[in-house]
Design a protein that fits this description.
Structural class: alpha+beta
Order of helices and strands: HEHEHEHEHE
Number of domains: 1
Strand order of the largest sheet: 1-2-3-5-4
Oligomer: single chain
CATH topology: Ribosomal Protein S8, Chain: A, domain 1
Largest sheet: 5 strands, mixed
Shape: globular
Distance between the termini: 28 Å
Radius of gyration: 12 Å
Length: about 100
């Protein structure tokens, strides 16, 4: 639960970290490694509520794909999101271990 609180209180802003990172084309990076499906969904919902008009790189990892499928299903049906790009199609490092969302 510690990671949840840190993520919500202090989302990692790429503007603050600098532009030399490979994922610097995004406003925020949300790392959900190690979270359960329910925890990741709660974190994502909170981040989407607080970050409008942003590009968010969601790192869920490759693994068995349980978290990837859940995050992509939530993102694809959420009205706060105007566009979803799957990592393997978004031309970003991380392949199918990442999902990119653009909020309204």
């Amino acid at each position: 639960m510690r990671r949840f609180r840190k993520t919500i209180r202090h989302p990692e802003s790429m503007r603050q970290r600098g532009r030399d990172n490979a994922s610097s084309q995004f406003d925020y990076v949300l790392d959900l490694h190690g979270e359960t499906s329910d925890e990741a969904t709660a974190i994502l919902n909170t981040v989407l509520s607080t970050h409008t008009n942003s590009s968010i790189l969601i790192v869920h990892g490759k693994g068995e794909g349980i978290l990837r499928r859940r995050i992509r299903a939530v993102a694809s049906s959420d009205p706060r999101i105007k566009k979803v790009e799957f990592g393997e199609n978004a031309m970003v490092q991380g392949g199918d271990g990442v999902t990119v969302v653009y909020t309204k």
